[in-house]
Amino acid sequence: MLFSGIPFLYYFLPCVLALYFSAPKKWKNAVLLVSSLVFYGWGEPGYIWLMLGSILCGYLSGLLIERFRGRAAAKGVLTGAAAVSLGLLGCFKYADFFIQNFNTVTGLSVPMLKVALPIGISFYTFQILSYVIDVYRGDVRAQRNFIHFAAYVALFPQLIAGPIVRYSDVASQLESRTHTLSGAAAGIRIFVLGLGKKVLIANVLGELCTAYAEAEERSVVFSWMYASAYALQIYFDFSGYSDMAIGLGRLFGFTFPENFRYPFLSGSITEFWRRWHISLGTWFRDYVYIPLGGSRVSPGRRLWNLLIVWMLTGLWHGAAWCFILWGLYFAVLLMLEKRFLLKHLERAKIFRHVYVLLAVLVSFVIFSEADTGLAAETLKGLFGFGGLPLISDTQCYYLRSFGLVLLTAAFGATPLPKRLAEKMQQTRTGAVLFSIAEPVVLGLLLLTSTAYLVDGSFNPFLYFRF
Fold first, then answer.
1. Over its length of 466 residues, how does the chain's per-residue pLDDT go in tens digits?
2. Which sequence spans correspond to the domains of the chain?
């Protein structure tokens, strides 16, 4: 079930809200847990038991780690919990990838498992891992109420696409949270804006990307249109979904962490990854990079740590070489920045933004293609290799058809819309007009998004495959 789908918007969510707000306070987490299981089971009924088994393992591990704190047994439980979580993730997500490559190298024919990838397994596995590690470190107390813990892991707003919410961020909210009209209004606003980003921008840009993939005739301009469209599509697709998750969390009294902060305005790749998929970046920083020694080691070891983290970051996104190459590509850029590039970028205010945009566009071309050969063809097209023309009549048509949405997306990826809204509210008259216009605009945005969905238009969600 997608947030940007009619069944969720007009059937599932209203029913859950009615049940949740009519339930006594002590039953609210139970309502959320059951609702989340229904939400997950809608698309993955066979894998509910896998998720519940992972939850039970994390729950029991937390209790045992706290009981044996300070003894070797606690470390043993942590190791076992990590082995189970990562073992399940490896089996379902990476087994066939490794078997296929093993067969290629050895010439053998080991049969592949051919198991379907459980939706959201990368996200809930990382949440469980962060919980047991934090309990082991003594950063949080183990949760003794199984319903509370299960609700934290399975909570449907962030279950299938994040943000990766740490237990420490919501521990107190699981026990007690307040519900206010202002909080609900903020949640609705964030959700509807996220829905508009996903449906009216990301989906339309996805149509252009599909047209490029199916085109028999390409050009340099068309390649750049595709690279720009895909980078913006994945941004609005994922940030829109994150906004919807954050908005839904606010409706139920939870405050989830911000996941995107205008990443295309970054002045370096280092800054870009502080603004893009923030919850994933901080997870790898706190649970992989820093335990490896972080930056407080020799320069050679620091570069090695970066290489490991970014190879794992790429692999987290999918079991394919394009994702590994994508992660290593960023590892090389970050290494260069840490060695000497950052100090030069600080003095080149215009060039640094051009450098980031170019580097990011190239990265998402690598990211977008499961076949590295196809990615190489697109990269050659970007830089005029391969004998492609500059532009053709067909691509002029696409430029006219999608030019406005590309410009709208580029504008929407900056803080300018937010700043204009804030500036409007600085005067008394502007504040009154804004208070009237905001619900009207949000209502129109919801209606337009609904009409687009009812029409049966293109409505993928890119991060389902991760």
1. 788 889 999 999 999 999 999 999 999 999 999 999 999 988 778 899 999 999 999 999 999 999 999 899 999 999 999 999 999 999 999 999 999 999 989 988 889 988 888 888 999 999 999 999 999 999 999 999 999 999 999 999 988 877 999 999 999 999 988 889 999 999 999 999 999 999 999 999 999 999 888 887 888 888 899 999 999 999 999 999 999 999 999 999 999 989 999 999 999 999 999 999 999 999 999 999 999 998 888 888 888 999 999 999 999 998 888 999 999 999 999 999 988 888 888 888 889 999 999 999 999 999 987 677 778 888 888 887 877 788 777 778 888 889 999 999 999 999 999 999 888 888 888 888 888 888 999 999 999 999 988 876 555 555 555 5
2. 6-177, 183-454
Per residue, the 3-state secondary structure of the chain, as one string, reads: CCCCCHHHHHHHHHHHHHHHHHCCHHHHHHHHHHHHHHHHHHHCHHHHHHHHHHHHHHHHHHHHHHHCCCCHHHHHHHHHHHHHHHHHHHHHHHHHHHHHHHHHHHCCCCCCCCCCCCCCHHHHHHHHHHHHHHHHHCCCCCCCCHHHHHHHHHCHHHHCCCCCCCHHHHHHHHHCCCCCHHHHHHHHHHHHHHHHHHHHHHHHHHHHHHHHHHCCCCCHHHHHHHHHHHHHHHHHHHHHHHHHHHHHHHHCCCCCCCCCCCHHHCCCHHHHHHHCCHHHHHHHHHHHHCCCCCCCCCHHHHHHHHHHHHHHHHHHHCCCHHHHHHHHHHHHHHHHHHHHHHHHHCCCHHHHHHHHHHHHHHHHHHHHCCCHHHHHHHHHHHCCCCCCCCCCHHHHHHHHHHHHHHHHHHHHCCCHHHHHHHHHCCCHHHHHHHHHHHHHHHHHHHHHHHHHHHCCCCCCCHHHHC
- What positions carry a catalytic annotation? 317
